[in-house]
Predict the structure.
Amino acid sequence: MSDMRESLNGIREDFDKAMEMVKDSASAEQLRVSFLGKKGKLTSVLREMGGLSAEERPVIGKAANEVRTHMENKLADIAMKVKEEEKSHKLKREVIDVTIPSDIPGAGSRHPLNMAINEILDIFLGLGYSIAEGPEVELDKYNFELLRIPEGHPARDTQDTFYFNDKVLLRTQTSGMQIRIMEKQKPPLKVICPGKVYRSDALDATHSPVFHQIEGLVVDKGVTMGDLVGSLRLFAKKLFGEKTEIRLRPHHFPFTEPSVEVDLTCWSCGGRGCRVCKNEGWIEVLGAGMVHPEVLSNCGIDPEVYSGFAFGIGVERTAMGRYGIDDIRLLYENDVRFLEQFK
Ligand code: PHE
């Protein structure tokens, strides 16, 4: 019996000594297993209790329980201490230094298409035009019908688009705005209409199924082709510099008569001929013409009294020329490395 008492005391001493070495929860757990676990030191002593007499057993049992309680308490204490230590360690490690300067998100920049639109609008605002905007989901009658492009007209083939039904489509041109404006307002009119247009064209370096136009419309008494030419010359010079000239080529649009396509002196070579203008010296930028008398009367304006001109500027073309962009797709990919160059 005194043997067992001795070994219990020894275990307790061993435990207390080992306890001093415990630094973290892993070593505390190791200690618990080696003393209190199934194969632990205390457990093996308790197994020997079978050999004790009936009088000895409760005495040793009590002593063994005391040792166990002692160890359990110590382990609980150390567990708490270690936990506290680990927590304060973690807090120290994760401390936030509020004095470190933060990452200030960089300011963005205007999109080159919007820059071009703004530049063009500014020019026309200076000439006394006002700005109007219309819907991209447009009625067939505004996009085609009242512009003298009835069903089956060949002009519809070159401007195929997405149809919601027979009467509603994604507009293929901003020219429908001519009708919308003339239906509501009477001359004198001087309006400029920027916006997105849609055509079922495949995307390549010079085409996109979504692009931008700026429509211009002037209606008054005595407006002539000379006024159109003068306005467009002024526009070209303001946007691309004094040396820029315009060239008119006869063309056909169902809603203007006469109609022209308008080229500008190549912005890359100044007219000498280069890769950009395919050695032409000129670059096509817009379509224009005198508003067809039938279009005027479609909107309740008397073509005997009033006349007008209209033009449609291709924004992408203009932006690409203005900022030296050689692939239209760059305008839609929103690659920050590209956009940042316009800051
Ligand atoms: N809407 C025509 C086009 O998309 C351009 C245009 C506008 C022509 C106004 C004449 C007058 O090609």
The beta strands are 130-131, 137-139, 168-170, 189-198, 210-220, 246-253, 256-265, 282-291, 307-314. The mean pLDDT is 92. Residues 112-342 form a domain with the BirA Bifunctional Protein; domain 2 fold (CATH 3.30.930.10).
